[in-house]
Design goal:
Shape: rod-shaped
Order of helices and strands: HEEH
Distance between the termini: 16 Å
Number of strands: 2
Structural class: mainly alpha
Strand order of the largest sheet: 1-2
Largest sheet: 2 strands, antiparallel
Radius of gyration: 17 Å
Number of helices: 2
Strand content: 5-15%
């Protein structure tokens, strides 16, 4: 399957956006002082669930961004 240039750029931008957003979220999660993420110095279920969401988003963002990058490289080779 051949991806168009706009679709490839969208997928690459999605991958980068996913990393930027979730890295920021994880930093804030680790520094949480509201008591949601840590209770008595120990991680709560809230922490683990959101960390899992972040890891899954990192993986999907990497895969989707990689597809976009491969699409752009393929378009450059055919031009």
């Amino acid at each position: 399957m051949k991806l168009s240039r706009p679709v490839s750029w969208f997928l690459l931008a999605f991958g980068v956006w996913s990393w930027v957003i979730w890295v920021t979220f994880v930093k804030n999660l680790v520094k949480d002082s509201s008591g949601l993420a840590f209770e008595g110095g120990h991680p709560t279920a809230y922490f683990w669930v959101h960390l899992l969401l972040a890891v899954v988003s990192f993986v999907l963002g990497t895969i989707i961004g990689g597809i976009g990058l491969r699409g752009l490289r393929a378009l450059r080779r055919t031009s």
